[in-house]
Structures are given as C-alpha cells and as structure tokens.
From TrEMBL:
Residues 1-82 form the Histidine kinase domain. InterPro entries: HATPase_C_sf, HATPase_dom, His_kinase_dom. SMART domains: HATPase_c (SM00387). GO terms for biological process: cellular hyperosmotic response; phosphorelay signal transduction system. It holds the Pfam family HATPase_c. Coiled coil: none annotated. One of its GO terms (molecular function) is protein histidine kinase activity. The keyword Phosphoprotein applies. It comes from marine sediment metagenome. Keywords: Phosphoprotein, Two-component regulatory system. This is Histidine kinase domain-containing protein. The keyword Phosphoprotein applies.
Amino acid sequence: QIDIEDTGIGIPEKQLKGIFISFKQADGSTTRKYGGTGLCTTISKQLVELMGGEIWVESPSGISDDPETPGTRFSFTIKVFSNEKIKKIIQDEKITKYHQIKTLIINEKTGKDDHLLEILQNFGISSYVTNFQGKTIDLIKSNITNRTESYNVIIISDTPSFNGFEVARQLHQHKLSDK
C-alpha cells in the first residue's frame, strides 16, 4: 500500500465519493484559486485499476490539527511481483568456462577498447588488443597452430584509416577463420 498525504485545504466529506469522476472537483471555487482540471484523480484511478489495484481517499488526512488545512490522504494498492520468485538457475561450471575464451580485438587505437575490455574481463574472458593491421594476420597465423592459444573470437573495428573488411577478407583467404 502506498499513501500520499498532505496538509492542504482538504476535501469536504460529501465530495469524497465523486473525487474520481472525470472533470469533477470537490468545489468549483478551488479551480480558480488552486488550479487543476479534475482529471488527475481519474487518470490515477485508471492506472491503479490497470495494475490490479484499488485507490481511495480520506480527508482529513490526520496529520494536521489545523482546521484550515486538514489535509487529504490518497492511498492505493497495486499488484507487483518480486524478482525473488524468479530465480535463475545458473550452473557455475558454465560460467567458469568463459576463462577459456580468448578474444583478439583489432582496432585502429587501443584506447578506444577500454570499455569492451572491461566487460570481457568481468566475464573472465582473456583479451588481446592489436592496432597493427599488417601484423594481425601473422599474429593469428602463429596462434592458430596451437589450439589452446588460438583466438575464439575476433572483433574488428572498421575506421577510415583501418580497413576491417580487408582484415576479414585476409582471414578468410588464409583459412584462419571458419566463420
């Protein structure tokens, strides 16, 4: 349950029943003095009901002793679901296998990959960054002979001065990738 209460002018008891009717205000003179269209309570009621809840109003709110500002309390309930009920079963052995993945990031400048490296590191994935397009193919060739040291994933950044498509073409041409 959620309660919203104030120490405002309050709502006369005879007006409480109609407070959730469109364009209805407790007193027409309040529109001139305090503003408002009389739609907010109607919209709030519709939203609460859409969420399977109930809304009600009490005036005076009980938090003020001043008869000039008795206040109002709006209360509502809605149906919500806890994430505690939706537990995912995660097998630790699947997570620990990430450390066996090696990635090679080929980019024009290594500084641009700090965020990507951090994400991969958080998963336990080892990564190597190179920004030398010409040496990249040789690096992959040397690692391909040793399956435990070969790269599982290669990420290529294509920029005006670094032709990622050419690197991908060479990888395919030299049969250094099966994807």
